[in-house]
């Protein structure tokens, strides 16, 4: 199965990035043999819509699950609409996150775990 992990750089030994939409890259891993492809996330610099654009990017790669630290409502909705599960709260390296997923230690989140715009440094929307 193909899964995408939000990462700080293009390696299985890279740290997972806690931000989905604004991560540096996605490491797309084939869980059967741990082969991977790294995809730069050009959406991380967008002022708005980074989560949606990043979700659309990983959807084009045929992934079934995303492993990340945090996922906001727009990204979660876009991923869910594409039939992609989201496991949040991931940490450690990309390799460790994949191994935890394969061992059944990560659960698919039924809802976003942060407010919109959570990755912009402000910790969420302020009204």
Features:
5-stranded mixed sheet; Nucleotidyltransferase, domain 5; 127 residues; 5 strands; alpha/beta; globular; disordered C terminus
Description of the molecule:
With 127 residues, the chain is of the alpha/beta class. The protein has one domain: Dinitrogenase iron-molybdenum cofactor biosynthesis domain (Nucleotidyltransferase, domain 5, 2-Layer Sandwich). Helix content is 22%, strand content 18%. The protein is built from 3 helices and 5 strands, in the order E-E-E-H-E-H-E-H. A 5-stranded mixed β-sheet has the order 3-2-1-4-5, with helices on both faces. Strand 2 and strand 3 (36-40) form a beta hairpin. Helix 1 packs parallel to helix 2. Mean pLDDT is 89; it is low at 121-127.
Percent strand equals 15-25%
Number of strands: 5
Estimated structural class: alpha/beta
The count of helical stretches stands at 3
Poorly predicted residue ranges:
121-127
Give the termini distance in whole angstroms: 41 Å
What order do the helices and strands follow?
Answer: EEEHEHEH
Apparent shape = globular
Sheet with the most strands: spatial strand order: 3-2-1-4-5
Roughly how many Å is the radius of gyration? 13 Å
CATH superfamily: Dinitrogenase iron-molybdenum cofactor biosynthesis domain
CATH class category name? Alpha Beta
Major sheet summary line:
5 strands, mixed
Range of helix content: 10-25%
Output the CATH topology. Answer: Nucleotidyltransferase, domain 5
Q: Please, what is the average pLDDT? A: 89
Tally of structural domains:
1
CATH architecture: 2-Layer Sandwich
